[in-house]
Design a protein that fits this description.
With about 140 residues, this protein is an alpha+beta fold. It has one domain: D-amino Acid Aminotransferase, Chain A, domain 1 (2-Layer Sandwich). The protein has 3 helices and 8 strands; from the N terminus they run E-E-E-E-H-E-E-H-H-E-E. The longest helix is centred in the middle third of the chain and has 19 residues.
Length: about 140
């Protein structure tokens, strides 16, 4: 889940899906944003709550965050929070109608949180940086 933390709230950008190798050890291969899932709403709410708790605990959290979740049978579970730009940014910057870099800078300046940027389609991206935007977000499956 990609988010931007502002002083007044957490702005959810998109739920993404990571691709991992299936042979042997887990190797990160890239992913897709946005990712549609029956658990998406719950996952987004959980990621925002987790980031909000981190903001309260740190006293000063602003900027891009990546919240890693697992969407399991019992619902979404937070694995970790990365307080930095993550690989999903590669795909998000291709499909966001707003310059995400300017939003991150706005958060760092202490400005208030704007409306969430509109996403145009979806993007598959590779760990090495290649990106393939396409028209419609991925369906669950």
């Amino acid at each position: 889940m990609s988010l931007i933390a502002f002083r007044d709230r957490i702005l959810p950008l998109a739920l993404g899906r990571q691709r991992l190798s299936k042979a042997g050890a887990f190797v990160y291969q890239g992913g897709r944003v946005p990712f549609r899932s029956r658990s998406a709403r719950r996952a987004i709410e959980l990621a925002v709550r987790a980031a909000g708790a981190l903001a309260v605990a740190s006293g000063d959290l602003t900027g891009f965050l990546g919240v890693d979740l697992v969407l399991g049978r019992q619902g979404p579970v937070v694995i970790e929070i990365n307080p930095r730009i993550t690989t999903s940014y590669i795909g998000l910057r291709q499909i966001a109608a707003t310059n995400l870099g300017s939003l991150i800078l706005r958060a760092g300046r202490g400005a208030g949180c704007p409306a969430a940027p509109r996403l145009r389609g979806a993007c598959d991206y590779e760990a090495g940086g290649r990106c393939r935007p396409h028209g419609r977000p991925a369906a669950n499956g």
